[in-house]
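#onboarding

Welcome to the new folks! Below is a worked example of what a typical request in this channel looks like: someone posts a single protein sequence, and someone else replies with the predicted structure as tokens. Don't worry about understanding the tokens yet, we'll cover that in week two.

Example request:
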Amino acid sequence: MARLRLTTRPAKTVAVAALVAGLLPLAPGHVAYAAPFCQPGESPEFRSRFASLKEQLGPLMGDPSECEHLDAATGDTLQNTTTGRLLPQGDQHPDVH
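Example response:
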């Protein structure tokens, strides 16, 4: 009859493996994805008028895929989402396209 032998790794080996795994994102050649129009360290999110609209529309509006930014041609604040683009409709009311 065959016997199974359970072995455990020494705690030092496990600690070193965890440390190396934690440092992998900092390795050379690894570049963090930066969303369009976001500053370093910034993540896309809905702010002010767009955040209020998200509360009303929920999942229909999708999630932000870039940071808010100004359209150089019109001066309007724009933001792309996973379901479309947010554009201002008048002074107070953004619209989803």
